[in-house]
Every structure is written in C-alpha cells, then in structure tokens.
Amino acid sequence: MKKLKFGIVGASGRMGQEIAKVIENTKGAEVFYPFDREDKWDSRKAAQVDVWIDFSSPEALKDVLKRASEHKTPVVCGTTGFSKKEKDLLEKYSKTFPVLWSSNMSLGVAVLNEALKSLAAISHFDFQIEEIHHNKKKDKPSGTAITLQENLKKAVQKDLPEPLAIRGGGVFGIHKVYSMSDEEVLVFEHNALNRTVFAKGAVQAATWLVKQKKPGLYQIRDVLFGKKA
Amino acid sequence: MKKLKFGIVGASGRMGQEIAKVIENTKGAEVFYPFDREDKWDSRKAAQVDVWIDFSSPEALKDVLKRASEHKTPVVCGTTGFSKKEKDLLEKYSKTFPVLWSSNMSLGVAVLNEALKSLAAISHFDFQIEEIHHNKKKDKPSGTAITLQENLKKAVQKDLPEPLAIRGGGVFGIHKVYSMSDEEVLVFEHNALNRTVFAKGAVQAATWLVKQKKPGLYQIRDVLFGKKA
Amino acid sequence: MKKLKFGIVGASGRMGQEIAKVIENTKGAEVFYPFDREDKWDSRKAAQVDVWIDFSSPEALKDVLKRASEHKTPVVCGTTGFSKKEKDLLEKYSKTFPVLWSSNMSLGVAVLNEALKSLAAISHFDFQIEEIHHNKKKDKPSGTAITLQENLKKAVQKDLPEPLAIRGGGVFGIHKVYSMSDEEVLVFEHNALNRTVFAKGAVQAATWLVKQKKPGLYQIRDVLFGKKA
Amino acid sequence: MKKLKFGIVGASGRMGQEIAKVIENTKGAEVFYPFDREDKWDSRKAAQVDVWIDFSSPEALKDVLKRASEHKTPVVCGTTGFSKKEKDLLEKYSKTFPVLWSSNMSLGVAVLNEALKSLAAISHFDFQIEEIHHNKKKDKPSGTAITLQENLKKAVQKDLPEPLAIRGGGVFGIHKVYSMSDEEVLVFEHNALNRTVFAKGAVQAATWLVKQKKPGLYQIRDVLFGKKA
User: What structural domains and CATH numbers belong to chain C?
Assistant: First the structure.
C-alpha cells in the first residue's frame, strides 16, 4: 500500500517533533519532507507531498500557503495568534485547495465546541468561560478560550463576560464552560493531559483532509461532525 | 387573558407544593385543581383542567392516565421508579393524547442528555458516569444516571461500566459524565441547586405540552430541542 | 434544664429568621430576645440574654457592642463589609467580654482555612483562589475569599495573584484554592448548599462562646480547633 | 563541593530512568551506582553510595535492605503492593538505619494526607474517597487511596465507605476526598500531571534522609512536616 506522504513545516520545533513521532506511529503514513525555515526549498520534493502540517508561526504562513498552492497540496495549520491579515490569507488560498485551520487540534475540544450548541436551549442562563494553563503561557485568555467564547456567543445570542484565566505550575490546558441558573449549574470541562493531543488531532485531520475533493477552509470540527454547507 | 388551568396530582406532597408555588409565580397560570389521593374525584372540575402534573407514585399512574384520558387532557409526569408495567401504560395512553414523562425535569439535565450526542464522534474514548446524592436517597444509581447511561450507550454504541454512586450529606443531585483518552479528559457535570429545578421544568413542560396537537409520548428534551420524528 | 437564651439582632431579616429557625430546632436553646432596629431597646430583657447573634449591618455594630457590654454578654457577629473602624470596635470591646467574629460561619470554611496551613510545606507552588456566587452578589471578591487569601499568604509567605470571581445564577457560594507545580495540582474546594450553613455555624459558635471565661476576639476556627494563644 | 552519591535499584526500569533524569538535573547530586537485577552486586562500590532509591518490586525488597544494611546506607523505597511480610522487613531493618517508605512520593499527596487531619473537627460529616487512573492500572483502589483512607479513618474515628475507583484513558492519577453535610461539601483533590512527580519527591526525600541521624521508618510526610515523635 502506498504510504501517505507528510510534509512538516517547522519540523525541528517542539510541535514539529511531536507530529513526526505521531506520524511514525501511524500505519500507512510517513514523514516525507520535514522542512525548517533555514532549509532551502525543494520544489520537486514538495510536489510529492500529500499533505502539509504547519504549527510554525504567523510569519511563516504566507510562504507555506504560497508553496502549497503550487501543487494544490492540502494544508493543516495549527498556528495561533493570527491577525486579520493571516486569516485573510487562509480565506484566499482555501478558495483553490483544501486548508484546515483550528486554534486547538484536540478531538475533545472539538466535541466541547459542538456540545456548546446544546446551550442555545438555555440561553437565559448566565455563562462564564474559564481556562487554566502553565505559568509560562503568556497570552491571556488562550486561543481555545477565545474560540469557545465565539461559539458560545453564537449559540446563546447574547453578550458574555470575558473568559477568566489562571496561570500556574505545569498545567497543560484546562477549559471550563459554566452555565448557571437559579436552580442548576452545568459545567463542561476539557483537560489536555499532554502535548501529543494536538499532534494526534493534526495527523487525523490531515488524513481526513486529503480525501476532501473540494477547496475550502475546514476546521477540526468538520473532521468529527462533517462540514457544514 | 385566559389563564392556563393546572391540575396537580399529589398536591399536598413535597413536590406537589413546590409545583403549586411555581405555578402561582407564573404569569397566565393558576392552580385550578389540586388533587390528593384521599380526595373524591370531581369529574366535572377535571373537565376544565388544561394540563395535569403528576409527581405522586407509580401506583397512582393508572388512575391518573385513565382519568386524564376522559377529556384527553395532557399529562406531565415526573414520577420515577417505573417498572415495565407503568412504561407500557404511558405508551398505551399516549397514543390518544399527549403525555410527557421524564425521570428528571431539569432543563440542565435535558441539555446534558443532548450534549451526550456529540460524544459519538469520540466513541473510542473510555466513559464513566457518576452521581452524588444526599444520604437519604435509597436507589442507586439514580434514575437520571440510568437515563444518561442509556443515552450515552446509544451515542457511543458500546458497553459501558456501571454508573458510580456516592451518598453523603444533603447533596441535592450531581451527575458527571467522564470521557477519557490517552491524551485528554472531557467532563460534563450537572449540579441541581434545589428542588425548584424539577418543579420549574415540569411547569415549563406543561405549558409546552398543551400546545402539542398530536398525541404522543414526549420527553423534557422535546420541549427544548423539538420532538424527533 | 435551663435553656440557653439567645438574642438576635436583625431578627426579622433574612439571616435573622434563618438563625431563629436553627435555634428553635436546637435542644436546650430558645429565641429569648428577637430585636430589630426599629424596636425600642429593653435593657432589663437584654440583661437576661446569654448570648447575642448579630448578622445585621456594619452601621449597627457600635450599638450592638455597646449594649452587650452593659452586661458583658458574649456576641457572635457574622456581618461582613467591615472597615477599619468596625474592626477597631471589635478589638476594643472584646477586651472586656468574649466577641466572636467571622466573615463566614460555616464549619467547612473554617476547616478549609485550617487546611491551608499544610500548604506552607509547598510554598514554592503557584497559588490561585477563586470564588463563584449568585448574580445578585455585588462585592467582588467575597469576604470569605479575602480571608482565605490572607491566611494563604500567611502560610506560604509570598505575594499571590488576586482572587478570581465568577457571578452567575443562584450559586450559593463556592470557594476554591488551587496549588500548582510543574508536576501536580492540588485543589481544596468548598461548596455551601444553602443559607442554613451560616446560621448553624453561628448557633454552634454561640453555644461555645458562652463557655469562654476570658474576654477576647474569637473566630469560628477557635470553635473547631481551639483558641491560639 | 562533594556530590551526593545516589544508588538506584532497578535503574533501567521506567521509574529508575525517571529518577536518574531528576538526579542529573539536581545540583550537587550524581547517579553513582545504577543497579539492575541481572547485574553482579559490587559491594565495594555500594560502600560509597550515600543513599539508595528503590522503586523496583516487592520481591527485590529483602535483598535491597540486606545490602543497604551492610554499610547502614539510608534507603528511600517507593514500591507498592507490599504484603505484611515486606512491611515487617521495613520495620526490622529501619531499626538500625534510616528507611523511608511511601506508597506515593508526591509532595502534593503528602500535603493532602496532612490536610486530612483538619477533618477531625467535622467528623460528623459523611466522607468518600475516590480515585481515577489510566485504563492500564490493575489494582483497585490505588495504594494512595488506601493510605488516604487509613489516615482519614484515623482523623474522623469512624467507619467509611470503600474508596471508589474510575479507570479510563491515560489519566495519570487523580485522588479526591469528599466531606459532606446537609449544608456544605468540602472536596480536597490531587491531580498528578506526570510521572516525574514521584521521581522528584523520591530524590527530595533521599536528600533529606541522608541528614537524619537516627534509624527509623520515615514517610514522605516527615520530609515536609517533620517526624512525629
């Protein structure tokens, strides 16, 4: 059987190495083109890549998309901290080939975002999102909390208090969504146990993305729950 | 405006009183026929009732349904501990007029049951349901935990370990659904703060049920998310 | 057996009524002098009171202490929102008769404050206090969170981030203390189920206070763990 | 400065490697004698070891203690699953040189065990211990839960329900102690984020143990809170 050929942008970075490890442990997959910023670009080698995974940096995005567009190679991107400029780039390039971007590649967070939709039925409740991360994390609130907040707002159609952030120790990533009425409290909580969670999600997303015929800007949720028309 | 006329079965019981209080605080609603087991049945008065609420006992169910069927008056029933016999009665009578039965009338638990569907996407996870109730509660696990377990099984299509039960103090009712993989843990948790939660849900369900034209066996979830065909 | 004669300041208020109910359900205790602001003060009746309980308001404190001092009647005070002025009054009057003041009368919170001492052994961890209360509560953070923060600071001897506050629904009162290192997370959490918790604690404190021979400013922790010299 | 010379029993095992890594990252410490079952025992080398760490197996304990006793070298032992026979060995050998044994070497669990003492003040509450571990863990409940249960029993002086155990995914180790009354719930919760927590605790314990002049059977709690007479 032909193996799925992965390209990794930022291959020697922390996430790049994690992704390579997961690919190596995935049947029918291989790390074909591990690429780093300082490497010379090999267009002929890139032509054979089936799918790119990029967790590098906002600055790298433009080159990544431009190069992938040459051969219409699908791209899975897990970089966070994008401004409008980068989001526009994603929109633009995804018109001609499949691009999947999510601020959090974990399956559990995708399920959490999906579960938020059920809160539309109790939109009169009070809501609060909270996240806990290790004391090295600088951005507050986390990109995942921002996405949860956007989805929650869409579901309950009202303004919400800002997400709360706790920083301490080596907590890998906890996100909580509180729904509170006079009579009951509902808490949806996600806890990431290690970094592999994001690498596994990205590889699963890539395997799914190569099967998508249509260009488009996909999310990890589409992998689990199907692309909304 | 004409007020919605409520009948209450077991009106002097703990839940009956709670329900009466909620109805009295609901605009456009009145307690029209508070009925207790020892009362003589007044068929003419019953004819004017718009909707019955019954939280009395499994033994009472047959009479409740039979009497309601006389005038096709909708019935909201929150009694638990039903055997197959009572469930068959619900099925039978609901063929000719609207009946709504749920083991837990809280909106939050209905949302929790709905949110369980999203777990179908991660059915390879390990799952565990847990409940905590006050030390006076005798049945283990709670009726709500049993319903959650049934819905979770339906969603993830596999066998699950038995729900765990903790008994202590005056805890009103906590239910947790754990979803666990090697990389992440998702917890959906519901916490009832007081008894009113069930009365409020029942009254809201009754207000909705009187508008249903079709006979049928409804659940609290249908009130929030629409009846599945 | 002679019954313990309770005086209640603010007897018709929400907490006053709750306290009266607990006293009535306590063997060997009676509500002897329920007093409200608008009542005329009856000094002869007050002379027979064994112990006062006051949850009224900061403004009332001076009168309460002055009147109690007449007969050296012990006072249990659960009022919050005291400025330095009121705290000085407590100090002053407690030099001549026993006064017990706590921002939170629950036994569980007293245990939580005691348990914080064990965190001195891991003072290199990161810490964060968090509280959740109903959406009617205006002060942020809660008086209890402030006391926990003071005790935590004393235990770990370092600066701490401000307590976080969530407001929503009818949550009666949740307090959490997070201790986080690179390898582990410890959470101490207290959840008040109802208002009775404070009334019960106050009555238990009063029963204990009448047995204290020495004047002094006591806390609910002294009731459980003994007065520190 | 002279470095502290560590011996590791089971050096090539999973915990042995973890311990070696922590020692290498500890200033003033070195892995001097990494020993495995199949190795030939080098008594002259062993004579220079300052402290042994052993996480190998119950079967190995007798040899470990016998060999350490030759030079009265202190031993830190983190092996679990000991029967009365092994516990007797610990008692016997610790009469002539310092031995420290704990079923859980984490600082946080030691603090949790210490915090349990404060529950003596509310011994009329209901209690429940619960633990969650990965789906590969076979023993139920965990050794740590058993130790917590013993300490809790000692504190509250009454019978307790059996600890509850949840198995799922890759959860590294969660322990909860519930204290519940009609009015409040207190939860003490510990969450281990990775395996390093035990290695770090063991190395810290060893550094402390070499300074103990007196023979005796110590625990990790003594490192943090001082040996009880």
Answer: 4-105+196-225 (3.40.50.720), 107-191 (3.30.360.10)
